[in-house]
Write a structure and sequence with these properties.
This protein is of the alpha/beta class and 464 residues long. The protein has helices spanning 18-24, 50-53, 88-108, 130-143, 163-171, 186-191, 198-210, 229-241, 273-289, 306-312, 353-361, 375-390, 395-401, 410-414, 417-421, 442-446, and strands at 41-42, 62-68, 70-71, 83-84, 115-122, 146-156, 176-182, 215-222, 246-251, 293-295, 299-301, 317-319, 322-324, 331-334, 339-342, 345-349, 367-372, 392-394, 426-428, 431-433. The longest helix is centred in the N-terminal third of the chain and has 21 residues, at 88-108. The chain starts with 17 loop residues before the first helix and ends in an 18-residue tail after the last helix.
Amino acid sequence: MPASIATSRPSAPAPPTAAQLHHAGRNLPRYTSYPTALAFQPAEGAETPRPWFAQTRPREVISAYVHVPFCRRLCWYCGCHTTVAHTYDRIDAFQQILDREIDLVAEALGDHAGAAHLHFGGGSPNALSPEHFLRLVGRLADRLRLRPDAEVAVELDPALLSAAFIDALGEGGVTRASLGVQTFDPPVQAKVNRIQPFERVAEAVERLRARGVEAINFDLMYGLPSQTPASVAATVDLALRLRPDRIAVFGYAHVPWMKKHQVMIKDADLADVAGRWAQADAADQALTDGGYVRIGLDHYARPGDPLARAAAEGRVRRNFQGYTDDPAPVLVPVGPSSIGQFREGFVQNAVATDDWSRAVREGRLPLARKLPLTPADRLRAAVIERLMCDLSADVEAICIAHGFAPETLDASLESLAEAERDGLCRRQGRRVEIPENARRLMRAVAAGFDERLPAGQNRHAKAV
């Protein structure tokens, strides 16, 4: 490790039971949406969901997600829709198409109260040049009517973050930067092709804050090749030195049959389910010892952070970017593979950059998939979101609020008998509570309300 860190911890958590490990090894959705993206259908003619854009309401704010499908290096753990651009010509051409897509989106939307949240993901948005990033922010601010108090968040590769790009972030009004740290352990970094010394990340954080980007998030991972509970805890300790406002701790999903570059990671270097659990425990203990508040499944925040306040007040929501305090009812998709959410349902842009660009050049919104939501979908989504955010759900109250009879989801409640027996939840009438010591397995409880969950599939990540 780049610094000497004590890794001993007082009051270590109890080891998982055999029943907990059984549930931890299940392949389950992350429930960033319900229904999940696996249920999406082809958007026939690519224009079918277009009317949904026009149904925005004059007094309501919107949000937008912009996907930049390029990186300057390929990390072998990556599960994102991205590619390495070996010359900048590809990114330059992408930028021009993106400008046109933003115009198409703005023209398709109905009246609204402006964008209150703008999130750039990827890929790595800092694969763009500083000039192109500034132009992109300016166009979005103009066409989507970015509000003066909006949050503008950008995901970044810290090792390849130049001083010029940080200057552009400050000039463009970015308010939150999310750094993909993953691990500070050099041997692990080498095994996933993501070398970034602690000192490089520390320098990036210092420069960001100096340029007015004061809210800093870190993404960390467990389950990477050759990680141990001690090395995970040491990474957290180093991260805490830099005082990030939020930290997300994700489990590595090894799916080389879907992401071919993951064959570079050897199965023999990966921990089993019990080992992954111990690594997640180590991260959790280091973070809570450091004063961070648990948010849902895998997020942590400083007590004064807006997300922590939202959690305390029951206002946290779940969307495709994870946990958020963004209340906007509409999420507009921009860029290849980007997913949007409207009252009528979900949409997804074409994943392949060529397909996406072809549609835009033809003057069409590049919508490739959709999922119209039924009232029953919305009901189940509400229960699952509260379980994932609050660790509890008053199922009867949610049924009534959605216009359903109180007993509508009784079959789903009854399906939780095994989970309750194994200590994952408690049922009190039609109310479900997830104990704190079962927080890590909340996806297994949420799955009880998922009537679309396919059997015997392996397209979802392990529960832990």
